[in-house]
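fold-stage: in
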Amino acid sequence: MAWNVVIVGGGFGGFSAARELERRIGRRGRDAIKLTLVSEQNFLLYTPLLPEAAAGTLEPRHVVTPLRETLRHTNLQLGSLTGIDSERSVVSIRNPEGDPQELRFDRLVLAPGSVSRTLPVPGLAEHGVAFKSLADAIWLRNHVIRSLELAETVSDRQRLDELLSFVFVGGGYAGLEALAELQDFATDALSMYPAARAHGMRWMLVEAGARVLSEIDERLAAYAVGELVKRGIDVRLNTTLAAIGSDFAELSTGERIDTRTVVWTAGVTPNPVVRELGLPLDERGRIVVDERMQVAGDERVWALGDAAAVPNPTDEGRPSPPTAQHAIRQGRTAGGNVAASLGHGRARVFAYRSRGSFVNLGRYQAVAMIGGRVKLRGALAWWLARTYHMSQIPGLRRKVRAVVDWTVSLPFSRDIAEVGSIGHPRRLDASLPATEHDPRAV
């Protein structure tokens, strides 16, 4: 009888765990161990390159890796986790059609990831835009182009302000990179839009803290802010978003910004489903695990990634930050520990020290901190950031495609075709709407 190993989550953590298990088990163990990966999509999204996909520097298809292409000996089951029954040893999932299903497990790895962290800001849920998925990135790129197109059709100054003002909330990696890349993209495109060029665009970064990029050296963060300010980007520190409407954003200072675009990148929180699993949670809602990522009270269950508080002995036992490089190493360690529990190898404690941080600022500019000591900025940091990210993309074909994309894009201007209708074909009856879906799902 085969052992059933179920991995929930197709992000960096779950993907890395499955890949490590395939490697550890090898050919001899495939008949005795059945691997199943439950994922909401059939691809792994390389999130550090999401801003470049949004800005058109990279083809969106080239920042994803099909899971079936890389995990050759793992059964992929599309669906989302809805619950766990430990007594019956089954996980409950819901498939893309909404049908409930159950999977039996002997070993379970939980890596359901995170969602955007929201705050009780009036109007945020209705009018804010997230930047966490490929759909978010594609929608935001199309939205910027469409705003420029609409600006060519109106003359009212307030409407132009609304169309050409873009507010990003959150001064972490995601917010800074998304803002920098999209502003760079829009600036390049502006030469083709005379009315928008004459009126000018307004780009703003709103950060609640006293500085941006709190995870890296303060001087590098100050350099990043200086680069943004030199481009005309308005950086507001010690400021929060007070309210948002369909055509405005109000700041904690009382200032009202005429805008139709507020991008929310103020952190992440564990996937809400973890609160329904009956597992021990910490004060931030993360699953409590030991240094081997086993869940307290059940030696058959491991948890990792953004949804788990994984202690890191290299950081005095504090929980690891929710970064891709930590999730990848946690996945490898957890995969190895699951294999060890089935007689393949030895279990290990998770211990990882960050190799460095890269923040792309567009226009061949970046800041980098490598090994905690080497601090770089400018074009060299930008080149190293691209080289590092290329090396981390799973699969040789995906690496090659990304390099080709980057190389080809260097001497050419970026495409400004607005393709928001992709995936939303017109009805045969022209009197019916083209789609029933929220446009942000594009």
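fold-stage: in (second)
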Amino acid sequence: MNKLSFLLMFPILAALFGPIADAQSDSTKLPVKEKIKKGWTWAALPVLAYDADMGLQFGALGQVFYYGDGSTYPEYKHTIYAECSWFTKGSSVYQVFYDSKYLIPGGIRVTADLDYLPERAVDFYGFNGYETNYQASVTTQGSADYLSRVFYKLERKMYRVMADFQGPVAGQKLRWLAGINIIGIQTGTVDISRINRGRKESDKLPDTALLYDRYVQFGLISPKEKNGGTTIYLKTGLVFDTRDNESAPNRGVWSEILLLAAPSFLGNSSYNFMRIAVTHRQYITLVKKKLIAACHFSYQGTIAGTTPFYILPYIYNSYSLTTKPDGLGGAQTIRGILRNRITGDGVAFGNVELRWKFFRSVVMKQNLYLGLTGFLDGGMAMQDHKVNSAGVPADERAFYFGRGADRIHLSTGLGLRIAINDNFIISADYGVAINKQDGLSGLYLGIGNIF
């Protein structure tokens, strides 16, 4: 499928979903057995999770919800989420997130996020999807082609400070959005000596040039962007939201168009750019309170200026409780495909899910349901990131570059959900890549639906 036909699928699929949604009855009425939550509730968990891209995760997280007199349940009035955790492959998460429609009078929604996300080895596969080759054998010990297990990795330290505000344009369904975001990113080659510290000689990584090092050497990554930088950008847009419950919708749509500008007067002296993010999500009740069809499509691209390579994987939306906003590929975008496998100046991706809530009960005064999810994910680079490949030796080009333009990357899989009070959702997804150029599969344990 070419780039144009994949982009045209978005409105076609949305149109197919739309008439079905209009025919659905109201599914917001609570079953008799469920309890209306009032006041403060909270959920805290020791973190013991797994991500195929980042390894075993351990630590602690918690989320507090305030429902007031219960008149808005299952919608909360305030929530605070906090996490402190570590991954066995070298990543860490230090995050505090806040969201409320009731902090400021007049229906102004406040969403704020503060986090620090260091990673010793984050995935890097080059640019423009299948235009770059992925050679699994170079990361496989014992293979004749073996170079390093971290050949497709780089080191990245990232911090984010975000404050977004939304206000009504036509009631609470159509809202304006404005905000300011600061993203500081420091990149470099993987610290091989640190990883090898304390390892047996047979387990040590060879001290060799990784893909990132070679891209810098060949000029595919410019000297002024190779070490990362700080980006301050302004965000504005419109959000249309008719979901009956934000965390686990039964019906409704959630669409948005966002413009993000990083102008020079904010201190973005190295790179000035403007990006656009257009996203549509839709939820359709097929069997009341039990079976839901859901779809999500997004296009994100550069419309002015030059976006540095370290910003390209960043996925933007109007609600940012996404600890690792990378893509395309991995837990939050295309499950089962290698994290960051697809990057470009513009990317499109989508997810179609069938969500079955097969068990409901009240346990220890908490509303509980169990669910199964089947999904099909896909995405591709729509707007190429321009690189100067003149510095790549002619006899090595076949190793780095594929044949022709990018095409759609697909994965499919199953998931399990455990939901408490329709807001705190524990998720497990297993996805399988259709093409071996995207890896084999991925298992992801975490919090929340991906949309």
